Amino acid sequence: MVYQAFYRVYRPQSFSEMSGQRHVKQTLQNALLHNKTSHAYLFSGPRGTGKTSAAKVFAKALNCENGPAKEPCNECPTCLSITEGSNTDVIEFDAASNSRVEEIRDIIEKVRFAPANARFKVYIIDEVHMLSNSAFNALLKTLEEPPPHAVFILATTEPHKLPLTIISRCQRFDFKPITSAEIIDRMKQVLNDAKIESDEGALKVIAQAASGGMRDALSMLDQVVSFSGDRLTAEGALLVTGSIGEDIFYQLAEALLSKDAASALTLLDRLIAEGKDVSRLAEDMITFFRDLLLLRTAPDLEDLLELISGNERFVSLSNAFEPETLYSFIDILSKTQQEMRFSNHAKVYVESALLKMIHLDGQVVQTEGRNHQAVDPHLSQKVDSLERIIADLQQQLANGVRPAEGAPVSQPKKNASKSSQSFRIPTGKINEVLKGATRQDIQVIREEWATMMQTLQRSHSALLEETEPVAASDTAFVLKFKYEIHCIMASENSSLRSGLSDALRNRTGKAYDVVYVPEDGWLKVREEFIRNNGLAKQQDGAADSPENQHGVAEEMPSFFQEAEQQNTDPIVAEAEKMFGKEFITVHDD
């Protein structure tokens, strides 16, 4: 005969064979006993938790020749035909491959005909969330008022995708993930029937990897049996499922405890080289530290452990960690797991997480016998300052001295605004630009500035609206901001910097480096540059001596003359060209 997988051979044929889902079984059995079955049911829950199996068992119990009964007999012709899938009155419909409205209309047309040889016509629609909107609409009326001989059972893993009008017309049963203990019991029954020996550790590894799905567990069991032969071992189960043994976790925890970064990273690299999935690795580490935390805080609950055993070795290991440290490990790994979803470098995130965990214990300080996580040093300074002030005031009150009204009391300084603290004026870069600045370079940038601004993104151009190029060399230019907060925002925006450089390159043919500076900072740096290079003195002398003017003009960077000029309105400039400056008077309204 053709070999059949375990999950097909050992599919539950009665409610008693189903693992878990006690609330579902008891409700359906009571409805059968009291003849209070409904016309429509919705079975929802994770994959492999028994939704379709429960639907078939329920269909057999409804149509059993000895029923309706609490359990189908599985011996009468009706039960046998439903089990074999040959009964024409129990229709299994796969909505994933038949999602069009035409298939649903075919069901609607045939549902009014009486069953051929059974008591009820049962329609089992699997993956019902895959139906199209038009198919749902076509099903709606029939689902609400079907013929008395018809029963609909809808099964789905994603009930949130179903229209509320469909859900409201059904009795809903939420299937829960099957516990590891229930999965292990079922696998033991399968192995006993197949006369295959196994280690308890192997079954535990498979149950943990199945994540609450019985079908996944039996599929992996089938694979491990094929790999191991006559006896299932934990090593074979670990290799087939891609899980990690508790010995590896023990070594990793010891490396973290001893702050041995080399051992921890080497161990991680070895696991990845063996083909372990990085995302699964992070998930298993979270579960491992959760088990350690459970052993540390509630050692009596060994039955809740998922990855490790509660032997003395792991009990002593859990006692070596403080609960706060284990909480921090889980928090770091959880954040890492979230960030890995959006990156192609998952290994780097796990390595960074291990290094954070190794250095975490170095930040835990002992204070009065209790461990406290290290806080922000600036916050510590403020707290210390406040404590000193309070102590001084308490001492003065104890001595009968009251602070005079209006006397200055030392207080911690208020937090300065972000704009006044976080931006540091790049004096060195500005001076380098000023040393090579020329009138021609600043004119080139100013001439192209307005046109270039129109090519930028709207958010970028809005941020640069109150700016002005004030000095330029052959390779860089200084961009002055009217408001310091805009300067900070621009300096922290890497996309703005690259977009501005690309736009200028397209307009001028040169790749300029941009130096950001607020207006106050620019005036200060410019004044210092003039003073340090003796340009102010030369400029004063030039006023008295016409013959010095030529020398000053040569030594003094020509961009200053350009920078001194205010931004002239183009209309005013054109009028001055036509009529001369002496005939033009500008009035600001």
TrEMBL record:
Polar residues bias (residue ranges): 412-422
Source organism, top-level taxon: Bacteria
Gene Ontology molecular function terms on file: DNA-directed DNA polymerase activity
Keyword Zinc: yes
Region (Disordered): 400-422
Keywords: ATP-binding, DNA replication, DNA-directed DNA polymerase, Metal-binding, Nucleotide-binding, Nucleotidyltransferase, Transferase, Zinc
InterPro entries referenced in this protein's UniProt entry, alphabetically: AAA+_ATPase (IPR003593), ClpA/B (IPR001270), DNA_pol3_clamp-load_cplx_C (IPR008921), DNA_pol_III_gamma-3 (IPR022754), DNA_pol_III_sug/sutau_N (IPR012763), DNA_Rep/Repair_Clamp_Loader (IPR050238), HLD_clamp_pol_III_gamma_tau (IPR045085), P-loop_NTPase (IPR027417)
Catalyzed reactions: DNA(n) + a 2'-deoxyribonucleoside 5'-triphosphate = DNA(n+1) + diphosphate
E.C. number(s) listed in UniProt: 2.7.7.7
The keyword Zinc is assigned to this record: yes
Positions of the AAA+ ATPase domain: 37-179
Protein family (similarity comment): Belongs to the DnaX/STICHEL family.
PANTHER family, alphabetized: PROTEIN STICHEL-LIKE 2 (PTHR11669:SF0), REPLICATION FACTOR C / DNA POLYMERASE III GAMMA-TAU SUBUNIT (PTHR11669)
Protein name: DNA-directed DNA polymerase
Lineage: Bacteria, Bacillati, Bacillota, Bacilli, Bacillales
Gene label: dnaX
